[in-house]
Amino acid sequence: MPGPDQTQTPTQEPAETSEIGYPKELEAVYDISVTVSAVLGKATMQVNQLLKLGRGAVVELDRKLGEAIDIYVNNRLIARGEVVMVDDVKLGITMTEIVKSERQ
């Protein structure tokens, strides 16, 4: 029992976690599908320029070579990253920065 000048702090039980280390109460959302997009860059052009594009045409993007790409989940920017090779045949992305949400 604490003395007169001591306070007793309640002990808080740790939240129960799932197999993957997240709170169990979130399990209901684990299997929801989301769309992940990796955007290399963007360009703006007029329709007449677009119609002139043909095989071999190069469209200049707003990014420099080696600059981080944007990673979107359901059309919301969540991270930036780099393009990597997966199994020598596919492209992948490695996240290098998590983008803070503007909604807080």
From TrEMBL:
Pfam families membership: FliMN_C (PF01052)
Sequence segments annotated as region (Disordered): 1-21
Tree of life domain: Bacteria
Signal peptide: none
Cellular component terms per the entry's GO annotation: bacterial-type flagellum basal body; plasma membrane
GO molecular function, one term: cytoskeletal motor activity
Residue stretches making up the Flagellar motor switch protein FliN-like C-terminal domain: 28-99
Compartments (UniProt record): Cell membrane; Bacterial flagellum basal body
Membrane topology label: Peripheral membrane protein
InterPro entries assigned to the protein according to its UniProt record, in alphabetical order: FliN, FliN-like_C, FliN/MopA/SpaO, FliN_T3SS_HrcQb, SpoA-like_sf
Positions with biased composition (Low complexity): 1-19
Keyword Ubl conjugation attached: no
GO biological process, one term: chemotaxis
Keywords: Bacterial flagellum, Cell membrane, Cell projection, Chemotaxis, Cilium, Flagellar rotation, Flagellum, Membrane
Known role: FliN is one of three proteins (FliG, FliN, FliM) that form the rotor-mounted switch complex (C ring), located at the base of the basal body. This complex interacts with the CheY and CheZ chemotaxis proteins, in addition to contacting components of the motor that determine the direction of flagellar rotation.
Family assignment from sequence similarity: Belongs to the FliN/MopA/SpaO family.
Name this protein carries in UniProt: Flagellar motor switch protein FliN
